[in-house]
Amino acid sequence: MVLKLYGLMTACTQLVYCILKEKEIPFEVVLVDMVGTAEHKSPAYLEKQPFGQVPYIDDDGFILYESRAICQYIEAKYPKSGNSLLPTDLQGLARFQQMAYAEAHHFYTPALAAVRESIYKPLYFKLPCNSEVYKQNIAELDTKLAVYDKILSKQKYIAGDVLTLADLFHLPYGMLIGWTGSDLMDKYPNVSRWFHELEERPSWKATLEYAKPMLPTKTEVLRQQVPELFPSA
């Protein structure tokens, strides 16, 4: 049975879609209605994903949720398919784990908080953006990306000189930071070089092309921002 990816084509589902494309694995997307019927909160859905979030996968009856866990499962199951995304040596794997944790704690946490304030609240919940919260998280992310820039001055990718899942984990929210009106991903030269190279990967372009009919455009998102933050939008 072909692997099924359940989700709405938002950030975390985009990540899993991208990894499946990298690995060249046949799969089927099953769209979850999170707006009209709140399908993700239904008893049937909660049997599969008890936190009521997206995505999850059904791999011939094996159910798995949490996007980073799904990505590592896919790589572990199909190591020779498509592009290799995890090191096989002990030290390389340790460096991957190191930077995967760094992404989760030092990048994703402030990036999500900034995106939640500037995009999710006004666009999906019709709530005002708290500009101070947004600015605080952008400032925190700035300090973390300064460290990233030093790391990337010595190596091509975030965990060494070979692409890993740790790099690709940054794609959805790295893109969305730009959609908030911030140019932070271009502020540091090594970060900019690294991130824009990731954005050019065919897997990510295919992900955005598939998601395009289901999501607002960057311009539509920027129009939702508070005027004092984005006077040019």
TrEMBL record:
GO terms for cellular component: cytoplasm. It catalyses: RX + glutathione = an S-substituted glutathione + a halide anion + H(+). One of its GO terms (biological process) is glutathione metabolic process. Residues 1-82 form the GST N-terminal domain. It comes from the Eukaryota. GO terms for molecular function: glutathione binding; glutathione transferase activity. The keyword Transferase applies. InterPro entries: Glutathione-S-Trfase_C-like (IPR010987), Glutathione-S-Trfase_C_sf (IPR036282), Glutathione_S-Trfase (IPR040079), Glutathione_S-Trfase_N (IPR004045), GST_C (IPR004046), Thioredoxin-like_sf (IPR036249). This is glutathione transferase. Its EC number is 2.5.1.18. Keywords: Transferase. It holds the Pfam family GST_N_3.
